[in-house]
Amino acid sequence: MPSLKQIVARETALFLAFTAGDLSAWTVPYTLFAVGSAPVSASASLSSSTGTAVSLIAAAALLLPALWTTLFLYAYTLFTQALSPDEDRLNKPHRPVPAGLVSPCGALARCLAVAVAHLALSTYSGVAHDALLAAGATVWAAMTTTMRWGGGHWLGKNTLALGATVVAMLSGASGVARSSCPCTVPTTPGSPYGHGYNVGRGRPGVGDNAVDVVTTRHVLGLGVYAALAVHMQDLRDQDGDAAAGRRTLPLVLGDGPARLVMALVLVPAAWAVATTTLSTLAMDLRVPSWPAAAVFVVVVVAALHGLLCWRLLARRTRAADHDTHMIGTYIFCLLTALSSLERLGVVTSMRPAENAVIHAMSLRGAMTTVLDLLFTKK
């Protein structure tokens, strides 16, 4: 009979084995996006009880969405990997099921337990509808590949199912962040952070339609972005996908034509969607003195997408395709971070440098307050 310590150690090791490779694609970007929905104001005083409140709000806005997203990620990886052990033996033999660390039935049992915990947190936070949409889209994506519903076609699995999953996860993480901050944080008139607002569980307070419109635009835009860019991940898994009977874009079109479509159509289209979705990237050429910092952000984002296009055409080994996919996930993390900065008012198209400095000063004060609360002896 294993001891409690042994059980905890084993379950922790299994959790890391299932999720470690996907944290940058799931927990990191959705948590970064959620921070933009928390009512944190740069103009709030950080030298009083209000400063402590802001610090706690910032911590809750980061930790609860991270927990919510990670629970979903764990349930997702348990479910999908339990259904595809044969494919993983070809593509990813290091995964827990093909490596013999856990049986498919054991993975499904853990999936059920984690899914119940995720749904409970979702219900508490008022985002059960987002959790159910993400779960439904995930099940559909898994069934299109493992059970070959719809022939395992890239249109159903990647473009529709995974695109819907991203929309639900962005929306849900944003709602969890709002629900974790049941208070009002004031802002000063004319602040780039907009108006202070009351935050209730799962929904912003009355009168926050402008905030909701911007968040909704970002959720939908980034969902479309992900649906266009996600096909890059299939370049590295073509052997296993072919053995499983999948119809991914590289297998349907062929490796060479698929790379051309991704580099010349899909990635540029994704960049265009990001540029039109995020105001900080929509450079207005009619303004001759556009701030240098904003131009820098625009150029960096465009250059990173250009790098993806170049790698798709020039770097064609399996290892290189994996690196290209990882660069794509890092770019997605950057875009979700820019979304949060824009929704918080930290970075705008007209005053990026000044607002960034203001926020950095407030963030430093908030971090100092959190550290004081954690480590100062009473």
UniProtKB/TrEMBL annotation:
<dbReference type="GO" id="GO:0016765">
    <property type="term" value="F:transferase activity, transferring alkyl or aryl (other than methyl) groups"/>
</dbReference>
<feature type="transmembrane region" description="Helical">
    <location>
        <begin position="289"/>
        <end position="313"/>
    </location>
</feature>
<feature type="transmembrane region" description="Helical">
    <location>
        <begin position="260"/>
        <end position="283"/>
    </location>
</feature>
<keyword id="KW-0378">Hydrolase</keyword>
<dbReference type="GO" id="GO:0016020">
    <property type="term" value="C:membrane"/>
</dbReference>
<protein>
    <submittedName>
        <fullName>Carboxylic ester hydrolase</fullName>
    </submittedName>
</protein>
<dbReference type="Pfam" id="PF01040">
    <property type="entry name" value="UbiA"/>
</dbReference>
<keyword id="KW-0812">Transmembrane</keyword>
<keyword id="KW-0472">Membrane</keyword>
<feature type="transmembrane region" description="Helical">
    <location>
        <begin position="12"/>
        <end position="33"/>
    </location>
</feature>
<keyword id="KW-1133">Transmembrane helix</keyword>
<dbReference type="InterPro" id="IPR050475">
    <property type="entry name" value="Prenyltransferase_related"/>
</dbReference>
<dbReference type="GO" id="GO:0016787">
    <property type="term" value="F:hydrolase activity"/>
</dbReference>
<feature type="transmembrane region" description="Helical">
    <location>
        <begin position="53"/>
        <end position="76"/>
    </location>
</feature>
<dbReference type="InterPro" id="IPR000537">
    <property type="entry name" value="UbiA_prenyltransferase"/>
</dbReference>
